[in-house]
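SUBJECT: A protein chain and its fold
Encoding: whole-number codes for local backbone shapes
RECORD BEGINS BELOW THIS LINE
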Amino acid sequence: MLFKKIFRLFAFVLSLSGSFVSLAQEKNTMLFSFGVITDVQYYDGETAGTRHYRSSPAKLSAITDSLNQQNVDFVIHLGDLIDRNFESFDPLLAILGKLNMPLYHVLGNHDFSVKQEEIKSVPGKLGMPARYYAITHKGVRFILLDGNDQSVYGQKNGSKEHKAAVQKLGSMKLTQAPNAQEWNGGIGGKQLKWLKKQLDDAQQKQERVLIGCHFPLLPEGDAHNLWNDTEIRTLLAGYPHIKAWFNGHNHKGNYGFADGIHYVNFKGIVEKTDTPWSVVEVYADHLIINGFGAEPDRLLD
């Protein structure tokens, strides 16, 4: 009898050990990966300061080749594919057309540096279903926002939306807000309701959430931040299933952490001669950012 009890106890311990090993293996198994690039910001013009506009197509071509070799599931571009001029899209889209996986765009402020009559054509040119949208991949919801929703450049001059943006920027300047800049934008009321609905739905379905936007929310008081950065951060803080906010815009890059959310500002491709880009690996309980060029590696628990 004593032997049988010892044997059963030993078998029970072994079964627990096997469960722990299985759990550890599950956490260390990559679910999928995706590429991140931002601020290619090309146009056929001379270098200005640290921005090497004409170098961007060659950089993007090299990145495209590397992404195909990495065999990622998809790629996200976080805005500012061009610096100016609608025709600047064409050579870049021809290069990106060589990707072997889906490509999802986020709109940046420079993507609207086009003629007034071309503003509405920008999302369609990039193959976007709308100015903001969401995709779900293997239990993770990617919410891709339009930070130019409220802006003095992203809507046609004289429109109701443009007039409201001019008024909002003027009010921000009166309070000397650091991000009261004409090259920033904000998220309007309609998109805000849509965002909350997406977050509620993802929470109900037990989906983890990653958010992409061109503009940062951190650090507080930064001149590059979204106009309504505090409002958006406060909203996101109430959703524990949000894991990260990815953005571009500040070409130097940055990182912040608040309310359980990682805020990662990826570096701009147009800068200097470096070619920063990333592959993000998604695991059950963490993200790994494999940085290339000037982009650093990061482990996000």
Remarks:
- The helical segments are 2-27, 56-70, 89-96, 122-125, 160-174, 189-204, 229-236.
